[in-house]
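Re: that backbone. Tokens:
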């Protein structure tokens, strides 16, 4: 134990003495602090929230230790080495740098008050995704919390690698050796998306459930390729997954597979909790409303009501039964069809597994008993398995091609028409067309030959289709959305040659 403590002090000392020049302020230590004593004495020692002691190992998480001008905080103008201004991009353009700040806004404070969490910027329930504070770490000092979703949220705690990652030796370390030092490899689509998932989908230790949503939190609906595109890139794409010819298709397919696995696991966690609570005769939380179609319960009144616009007059073909996760069910069906995922004998396809969950969850959806929960658990594990299998199979392909030809999509819709009545399903369809067909999803693509794959006509048509899916001004639901019209407009999008099989 003592040896460990000594090693720790040595590490912190190295970190502090490594400022650019002896007279320069240390990027990690609070002002005026010298060495490890400073770390312990100032700022950091103030408890973040009651009952917790700061974790000295957390020093490598602060972005200020990465963002010095000579490291990643250089100027953008006239600079071609993106690495040298990664911090500058994050600071100015990346929404993650404001993730903690939003917890101070009145809407966050209101949310936390309604939920009885005290102050949002101190609540574990919010910090988990809006800062680098999560359950895997001891309490972080306030200045690190203030960084929001900082470098360490994705690249890992740099306490043990910050001082060596720019040395030639670093390049010789294997991924496993780097990861042993706390560095997180984000070099593949799968490692990237798995890094986003805990915050953008949720997991056992952090989630956006209906309580948070009803208190004012935006609903989470994640599609990795689209989010990656929306997110300002702070690295040079050459030599990275961006330079693979199938980058966008790969991001879409592997992103959906990993996301579906996470969605299944979250359902499993929720069902397990309810099972345990039932057994212990504690109040249980089931069904979790966030698992279901929002608009099944929330209907705008008036002739332009979202539900009234549906052929048949209702959102769900079985009135009174909210549908399970239309956003993700449609993703699973599109994954099977567009990426033609194959299954090994004895396993189910991802789409079929998601439909199995619907069959169990939707009838008598509010009934809670052990037998039902057991069936939900079984099906949730089935979907997680199917999604994992899809990931493996997709990863083994040299090149992923998405086939979203109109014939295939028409057949998919004809196969289960009610599933395609949802606005969620229409948006997912648009996103896969963008990923496959050279819409804006390809803007992040590095190679110019791919950027030109889409004709101006296709781009324009996809843009119009996207516009048709926007909520009307002032509305908080897709009022006036018509699946029939969407499918008609979809078929009118001219597909570039590259998309055809
Ligand atoms: C499971 C992770 C998670 C948890 C827990 C969480 N959030 Fe969020 N929050 C997100 C994500 C992801 C977004 C961005 C959603 C998007 O745009 O897709 C977000 C967005 C927000 C926004 C809107 C920000 C904007 O710029 O529009 C607010 C406000 C917010 N969260 C507050 C809170 C508060 C307050 C809590 C605690 C009660 C909380 N969040 C808990 C993940 C989380
Ligand atoms: C939301 C996640 C996320 C955050 C936050 C983030 N990064 Fe990154 N960063 C990535 C991903 C993904 C890559 C691409 C990695 C790859 O393909 O190997 C990357 C790449 C980089 C690279 C290029 C690495 C290389 O091997 O070429 C640098 C440098 C970098 N980030 C620095 C930073 C710094 C500094 C911060 C904080 C100011 C930061 N990043 C914050 C996700 C993130
Ligand atoms: C530690 C949690 C965390 C991780 C990891 C994370 N995010 Fe986020 N992300 C957030 C939060 C919180 C917000 C909302 C920030 C705000 O608006 O204040 C957000 C916002 C975003 C937004 C803006 C969404 C919008 O509505 O405009 C994009 C895009 C995004 N994240 C992409 C990604 C991608 C891609 C990854 C993985 C490479 C990732 N994020 C990893 C927490 C996270
Ligand atoms: C099974 C029915 C049901 C489903 C499904 C459902 N909700 Fe709710 N929602 C309710 C009820 C009942 C309330 C009021 C009680 C409460 O606040 O929890 C409510 C409250 C809300 C509120 C607060 C409204 C207000 O005026 O205060 C919001 C916002 C909300 N839900 C959004 C959503 C979103 C977004 C989804 C989909 C992810 C969703 N709901 C799914 C039944 C549902």
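Recovered sequence:
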């Amino acid at each position: 134990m003592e040896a460990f403590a000594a090693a720790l002090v040595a590490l912190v000392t190295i970190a502090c003495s490594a400022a650019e020049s002896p007279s320069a302020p240390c990027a990690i230590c609070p002002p005026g602090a010298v060495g490890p004593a400073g770390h312990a004495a100032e700022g950091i020692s103030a408890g973040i929230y009651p009952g917790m002691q700061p974790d000295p190992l957390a020093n490598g998480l602060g972005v200020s230790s990465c963002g010095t001008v000579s490291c990643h905080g250089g100027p953008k103008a006239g600079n071609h080495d993106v690495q040298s201004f990664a911090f500058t991009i994050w600071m100015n353009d990346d929404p993650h740098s404001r993730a903690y700040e939003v917890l101070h806004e009145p809407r966050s404070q209101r949310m936390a008050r309604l939920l009885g969490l005290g102050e949002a910027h101190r609540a574990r329930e919010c910090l988990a995704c809006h800062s680098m504070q999560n359950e895997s770490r001891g309490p972080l000092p306030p200045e690190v919390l203030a960084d929001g979703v900082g470098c360490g949220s994705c690249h890992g705690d740099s306490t043990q690698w910050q001082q060596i990652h720019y040395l030639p030796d670093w390049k010789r370390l294997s991924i496993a050796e780097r990861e042993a030092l706390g560095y997180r490899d984000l070099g593949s689509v799968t490692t990237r998306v798995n890094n986003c998932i805990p915050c953008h989908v949720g997991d056992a230790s952090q989630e956006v459930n209906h309580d948070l949503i009803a208190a004012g939190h935006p609903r989470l609906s994640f599609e990795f390729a689209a989010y990656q595109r929306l997110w300002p890139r702070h690295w040079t794409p050459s030599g990275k997954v961006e330079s693979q010819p199938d980058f966008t298709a790969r991001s879409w397919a592997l992103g959906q597979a990993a996301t579906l696995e996470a969605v299944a696991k979250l359902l499993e966690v929720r069902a397990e909790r309810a099972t345990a609570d039932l057994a212990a005769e504690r109040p249980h939380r089931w069904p979790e409303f966030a698992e279901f179609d929002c608009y099944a319960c929330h209907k705008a009144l008036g002739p332009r009501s979202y539900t009234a616009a549906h052929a048949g007059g209702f959102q769900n073909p079985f009135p009174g039964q909210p549908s399970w996760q239309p956003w993700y069910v449609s993703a699973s069906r599109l994954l099977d069809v567009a990426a033609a995922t194959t299954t090994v004998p004895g396993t189910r396809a991802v789409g079929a597994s998601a439909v199995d969950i619907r069959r169990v969850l939707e009838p008598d959806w509010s009934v809670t008993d052990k037998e039902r929960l057991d069936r939900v658990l079984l099906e949730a594990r089935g979907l997680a398995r199917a999604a994992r299998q899809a990931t493996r199979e997709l990863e083994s392909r040299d090149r992923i091609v998405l086939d979203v030809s109109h014939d295939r999509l028409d057949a998919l819709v004809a196969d289960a028409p009610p599933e395609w009545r949802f606005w969620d399903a229409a948006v997912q369809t648009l996103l896969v067309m963008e990923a496959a067909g050279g819409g804006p999803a390809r803007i992040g693509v590095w190679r110019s030959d791919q950027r030109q794959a889409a004709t101006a006509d296709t781009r324009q048509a996809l843009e119009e289709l996207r516009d048709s899916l926007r909520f009307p001004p002032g509305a908080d639901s897709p009022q006036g959305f018509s699946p029939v019209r969407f499918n008609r407009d979809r078929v009118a999008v001219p597909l570039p040659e590259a998309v055809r099989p």
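Residues 277 and 284 are 5 Å apart (CA to CA). The pocket of heme C (ligand 2) is lined by residues 63, 66-67, 72, 83, 86-87, 90, 96, 149-151, 153-155, 186-187, 192, 234-235, 240-241 (CB under 6 Å).
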